[in-house]
Amino acid sequence: NLRKRMTLQYSLIFGVIILVIVFATYALTWWSLVAIEKQELHDKVIHEAEEWVNSREAPVNEKELYTCKMLAYFVGPDNKTVILDQLTSTNPGKLLLEKRSAWPSVNGSDTLMLRCHNNEGKHYRYLISVCEVKEKNQLVGYLYMFEDMEVYYLAGLNTFKTLSLLFVVLFCLACQG
């Protein structure tokens, strides 16, 4: 009887430790990935703004637009006059445009995550970054770029499920003692 109680107590302690490790691993992995992607997207939007000034080349190529991996939206200094719209040709882009009030501002956070879903329940997770576009020190407008994070989210979710399954197996093994 004492042995069973001690085994149960130690198993619960072991379970809590493993559970904390599982959640911490998942959270730190996701946080690190998002931080890296935010920086890369911010660097990319600055690069694409410079390219647009130099060559008027659209920020996102046709393949990325077709797959909705990357999208862009370029507005004038009044933040209303549309210079380039690569959103309204895609369903996720239309949803993102509806959430325009949640986009980052140049003065505040210049990169953030936006989550939205359509009427059928399909979820979208996009990182959004913005930068000022200047030509000869004159403000031309603001370039917003969007990167689809759904693949990363699903990979993270699958990792979390795997870690959770591992937790259950280890906990059951610990309770066998």
Q: Helix count, per DSSP?
A: 4
Q: What is the first-to-last residue Cα distance?
A: 13 Å
Largest sheet: 5 strands, antiparallel
| Strand portion | 15-25%
Q: Widest sheet: strand order? A: 2-1-5-4-3
Mean pLDDT: 86
Please write the string of helix (H) and strand (E) elements: HHEEHEEEH
Q: How many β-strand stretches? A: 5
Task: List unreliable stretches of 5+ residues.
Answer: none
Specify the structural class. Answer: alpha+beta
Q: What is the subunit arrangement here?
A: single chain
Describe this structure in words.
By secondary structure, this protein is an alpha+beta fold. It contains 4 helices and 5 strands; from the N terminus they run ααββαβββα. The protein has helices spanning 2-55, 62-67, 91-98, 150-176, and strands at residues 70-75, 82-85, 111-117, 123-135, 138-148. The chain has a 5-stranded antiparallel β-sheet with strand order 2-1-5-4-3. α1 packs antiparallel against α4 (150-176). The longest helix has 54 residues, at 2-55. It is elongated, with a radius of gyration of 23 Å. 20% of the residues are buried. The model has no long low-confidence stretch (mean pLDDT 86).
Summarize the entry for a quick read.
With 177 residues, the chain is an alpha+beta fold. The chain contains four helices and five strands. Helix content is 54%, strand content 23%.
Outline the fold blueprint.
Layout: H1 2-55, H2 62-67, E1 70-75, E2 82-85, H3 91-98, E3 111-117, E4 123-135, E5 138-148, H4 150-176
Antiparallel strand pairs: 1-2, 1-5, 3-4, 4-5
Helix pairs in contact: 1-4
